[in-house]
């Protein structure tokens, strides 16, 4: 895994900025906060693909490459990479733009693979 990748050419699924309340005692953003942002982005693209409600059923892989700081602009890119009968695998990459850097460099900070299942009105798995 290389951390020198550039963000995908498509728009970010979500963009946000972490606040001081999202930081741990060392001043870095909690991993759980990052994971939540990635899950939101993954759920957006999975729900679009499923044309309805989805639920997260697994995180197959999650890698923290470097820390995120308060004030960084966080962009999460999500892409459905596999579709099964009721489930979808979503690749997620999170990049940041450091607010204290003049250049427009975007740095890879996390990546992962999440699995979502399509749900019917009774919250049971349904075909995608």
Tell me what the structure shows.
This protein has one domain (14-118): Thiol Ester Dehydrase, Chain A (Roll), CATH 3.10.129.10. With 128 residues, the protein is an alpha+beta fold. Helices cover 16% and strands 38% of the residues. Strands 1-3-4-5-2 form a 5-stranded antiparallel beta sheet, with helices on one face. The model has no long low-confidence stretch (mean pLDDT 93).
Order of helices and strands: EHEEEE
What is the tally of beta strands? 5
Measured as a percent range, the helix fraction is 10-25%
Number of domains: 1
The major sheet is characterized as: 5 strands, antiparallel
Uncertain stretches of 5 or more adjacent residues: none
In CATH terms, what is the architecture?
Answer: Roll
Mean pLDDT: 93
Q: What would the CATH topology be?
A: Thiol Ester Dehydrase, Chain A
- Strand content range: 35-45%
- Kindly report how far apart the N and C termini lie: 31 Å
Number of helices: 1
Shape: elongated
CATH class: Alpha Beta
Q: What is the assigned CATH homologous superfamily?
A: Hotdog Thioesterase
List the helices and strands and how they pair.
Layout: E1 14-16, H1 31-50, E2 54-64, E3 73-83, E4 87-97, E5 107-118
Antiparallel strand pairs: 1-3, 2-5, 3-4, 4-5
For the structure shown, list the relevant keywords.
about 130 residues; alpha+beta; Thiol Ester Dehydrase, Chain A; 1 helix; elongated
Provide a concise account of the structure shown.
This protein has 128 residues and is α+β, with helices and mostly antiparallel strands. The chain contains 1 helix and 5 strands; from the N terminus they run E-H-E-E-E-E. Strand 3 (73-83) and strand 4 form a beta hairpin.
């Amino acid at each position: 895994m290389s951390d020198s990748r550039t963000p995908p050419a498509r728009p970010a699924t979500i963009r946000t900025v972490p606040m001081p309340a999202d930081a741990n005692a060392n001043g870095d953003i909690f991993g759980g906060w990052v994971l939540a942002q990635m899950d939101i982005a993954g759920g957006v693209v999975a729900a679009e693909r499923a044309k309805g409600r989805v639920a997260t059923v697994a995180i197959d892989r999650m890698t923290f490459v470097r820390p995120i700081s308060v004030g960084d602009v966080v962009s999460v890119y999500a892409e459905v990479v596999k579709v099964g009968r009721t489930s979808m695998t979503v690749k997620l990459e999170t990049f940041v733009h450091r607010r204290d850097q003049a250049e427009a460099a975007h740095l890879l900070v996390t990546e992962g693979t999440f699995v979502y299942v399509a749900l019917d009105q009774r919250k049971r798995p349904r075909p995608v």
